[in-house]
Design a protein that fits this description.
This protein is mostly helical. It has 14 helices and no strands.
């Protein structure tokens, strides 16, 4: 009976590995084809699919430059917006979640439920009112319209709240208070270092979301010199690029390379952050 159990376990494990391998192939294939096409010429792309990179990467880059697409400006704008959005979301979401988890006050449960409701409301439903509000306070065509609202990022607060509830050590906070530490000092010097895996996990998700953000930015930003990289890539659909498939693929590939690099560097923090948040001490 014990041998049968071992055999069944091995079979189940093999099935899981096969399924995960197939899932990995399905996920990676489109990305790999995009990167490969970024190195191919328009003629090669028209001839069919290839999984082997070609030698026209620099040529496609020069085509984009000759068409007036300022990739450097797009990168700078996207990095500034993504980093600013990430820092604002991380700090204020963690601060708000810390207050909800640590302190007792009237309406705490109602406030927590309200955050969950806000998480479930898509931005598309509120974009008209949001744009009108930004217009009235003079923040249209301004990055602040995309950064400042993240001070009240419901999704970030919800994530941080769930994470802090799973790893909060109340005795450590009480000991710091007895030693004379201020409340804001406890948050900065004790809680933030302890919550680093969760903060990095949220930071990665926020950075990627901000980097890929096209909808809000396209509605609020109108100046070409403020366009982010995804907004610039949208211009590749114009007539001037219609026959330059290699250049178009190169422009699309440029937008996902930073995300791939970021995930490759910080993926271990995502795993540890989720694992820690799932275990209640």
């Amino acid at each position: 009976m014990f041998n049968n159990y071992n055999i069944n376990t091995k079979i189940m494990r093999a099935v899981i590995y096969i399924f995960l391998t197939l899932l990995l192939i399905v996920t990676i294939t489109p990305i790999w084809l995009l990167l490969v096409n970024a190195t191919r010429s328009t003629t090669e792309i028209q001839q069919g699919i290839s999984i082997v990179p070609s030698t026209h990467l620099i040529e496609n880059y020069k085509i984009l430059l000759s068409k007036g697409l300022d990739l450097g400006r797009g990168f700078a704008n996207s990095f500034f917006l993504s980093i600013s959005s990430t820092l604002v979301t991380l700090y204020f979401s963690m601060l708000a979640a810390y207050g909800i988890v640590v302190y007792e006050f009237h309406g705490k449960q109602l406030f927590s439920n309200f955050i969950v409701v806000l998480v479930m409301i898509p931005m598309q439903l509120t974009i008209i009112g949001f744009y009108q509000y930004m217009s009235k306070i003079g923040l249209t065509d301004n990055y602040l319209a995309l950064i400042l609202p993240l001070i009240a990022n419901a999704g970030g607060v919800f994530f941080c709240k769930q994470y802090l509830e799973s790893m909060l050590i109340q005795d450590l906070i009480d000991a710091a208070r007895i030693d004379g530490a201020s409340e804001i000092g406890i948050f900065h010097l004790i809680m933030m270092p302890l919550a680093l895996p969760g903060a990095i996990t949220l930071g990665i998700f926020t950075f990627i979301g901000s980097w890929n953000n096209f909808f809000n930015a396209f509605i609020l930003i109108s100046s070409l010199d403020k366009y982010t990289l995804p907004m610039m890539v949208q211009t590749l659909r114009g007539d001037v690029y219609r026959t330059e498939y290699g250049a178009i693929y190169f422009g699309l590939a440029i937008t996902i390379v930073p995300v791939i690099i970021l995930y490759a560097i910080f993926s271990r923090y995502i795993v540890s952050g989720i694992a820690l948040g799932a275990v209640k001490e």
